[in-house]
Design brief:
3-stranded antiparallel beta sheet, single chain, elongated, 3 helices, Factor Xa Inhibitor, alpha+beta
């Protein structure tokens, strides 16, 4: 059976933790940062886990060989 192609944009945006959870960065962090509070900018640096089953299923389908890291 042939290998499945990985959706490269998905592979760059999501990471898998050691326990197997999928984490993502928040959106809206790249522009208009001068207006935002320091606290808000710090919150952009953290990754947050995917919670809904539909999102997790979609990411796993788009990037079946996603690496831990």
């Amino acid at each position: 059976m042939p290998k499945i192609k990985t959706h490269k944009a998905t592979a760059k945006r999501f990471k898998i933790t050691g326990s197997g959870k999928i984490r993502r960065l928040k959106g809206g962090r790249s522009h208009l940062r001068r207006k935002k509070r320091k606290q808000t900018k710090r919150l952009f640096d953290k990754t947050i886990p995917l919670e809904t089953g539909g999102e997790i299923k979609r990411v796993k389908r788009l990037a079946p060989y996603l690496k831990k890291g």
